[in-house]
Amino acid sequence: MAFDSLFCSVLAQVARVARFVTHLCDWASLATVATRAPVEGQPFSNVFSISDGPELQSSGVPYLYLTPMEISVQDLQVSPVSSLSMSLAQTDFCRDSGYDPQSPLCAHVILSGSVLQINGSEADFAKKALFSRHPEMMDWPHDHGWFFAKFNITLVWVLDYFGGVKTVSPEEYFQASPDQTSVRLASDTLHITSLD
């Protein structure tokens, strides 16, 4: 197999891993640039529930349900630039396989981009996506100014095997299928091809 076609094949598989992890994960760590003293200008990480669509209806876009009362949302109002990290450590996969959460074999994805408020039909989809997987959200206090937002992806970082992080473009990411029945971790692909 020529290197170019092998590289494209592996890259496509890496993009599928990213889509798979994003769809499977129910929560993520959102890192913003802090706007409050004494940590102003420093990275600030916080946990948020996410959904890229109802189960088995992946859009690839992580949606969030936010309130201006949340400290990280206040950071986003100053600068929407952020990163979103998800890991299979929150699933049974890593635990059952005996993988430490930090191990690259316990696949994790970091999305670079920004958080944007959404309206209209996209907000309707976000509501369905989030409330179907996080039904408790429907009962959260109605006087908190909740709104729907999406993570606008500019670059995807994937760590699913030893040897360093791999990156895929948003275009490659959205073209990939997160199909659970056919996705294999890119580490499997790399392991198999390294034996040839």
Give a topology summary:
Layout: H1 3-24, E1 27-33, E2 43-49, E3 63-66, H2 71-78, E4 81-87, H3 92-97, E5 108-117, H4 120-133, E6 147-159, E7 166-168, H5 170-175, H6 186-195
Antiparallel strand pairs: 1-2, 1-4, 3-6, 4-5, 5-6, 6-7
Helix pairs in contact: 1-6
Q: How would you describe this protein?
A:
Helices cover 34% and strands 26% of the residues. Strands 1, 2, 3, 4, 5, 6 and 7 form a seven-stranded antiparallel sheet that branches. With 196 residues, the protein is α+β, with helices and mostly antiparallel strands. The chain has helices at 3-24, 71-78, 92-97, 120-133, 170-175, 186-195, and strands at residues 27-33, 43-49, 63-66, 81-87, 108-117, 147-159, 166-168. Helix 1 (3-24) runs antiparallel to helix 6. Strand 6 (147-159) and strand 7 form a beta hairpin. The protein is built from six helices and seven strands, in the order H-E-E-E-H-E-H-E-H-E-E-H-H. It has a single domain, classed as Electron Transport, Fmn-binding Protein, Chain A (Pnp Oxidase, Chain A), CATH 2.30.110.
